[in-house]
Amino acid sequence: MATHRKGKLEKMNIIFSQSIKEMGVGKEFFSHMVLYYWPKIVGKHISANVKPVNIEFKKLFLYTSHPIWANQLSYMKDEIKNKINNFMGEYLVEDIVFTNNRPVNITEENNSPAVNIGYEINKINLSDKKIEEIKNDLNNVKNDDLKKVIFKVRLNDEK
Question: Is the pLDDT of residue 26 over 70?
């Protein structure tokens, strides 16, 4: 970041937002954030019946559970666009289009249970030699609490 600070700490949301924009992935990242935060942006009732499919060229494509929802939301387009743009702090959506294409996350094929990554990592066993190697690497760490934390991080990293 080329901005000059005046001895003050910067808020993480500002730093993060600037970093994303500088990396050149801002629009794509914020588009995915709209899809992720959809229930929070429009509320539980609407999000239960209307799913965001994609954002392309500032058009938000929405899948509705019934044509009545598309009809009702067509009257609320401006309100929904404003909610999204205000929530993201970025002008992302100019128009809303209703589609029959179902979002990937609600198709029947994708109803597999969520995987608990932490649980799966804990099931992996390391050899005694590898565990001893990690412990030996930590011999110079004097603080026992720090040593335990680093040991756990190294174990997970090796797994």
Answer: no
Q: Answer whether 30's CB lies under 8 Å from 41's CB.
A: no
Q: Where are the beta strands (DSSP E) in 19-147?
A: 50-56, 59-64, 95-99
Instruction: Decide: helix, strand or coil at residue 61.
Output: strand
Q: What's the chain's average pLDDT?
A: 78
**pTM higher than 0.90, yes or no?**
no
Determine how many CB atoms are found less than 10 A away from the CB of residue 41.
19
What are φ and ψ of residue 60, in 5° steps? -95, 120
Pairing of strands 95-99, 59-64: parallel
Residues 64/70, Cβ–Cβ less than 8 Å: yes
Structural domains of the chain ordered from first start: 15-110 (3.30.300), 117-158 (no CATH)
CB count within 10 Å of CB 131 equals 15
Strand order through the sheet with 59-64: 50-56, 59-64, 95-99
Q: Is 42 helix (H, G, I), strand (E, B) or coil?
A: helix
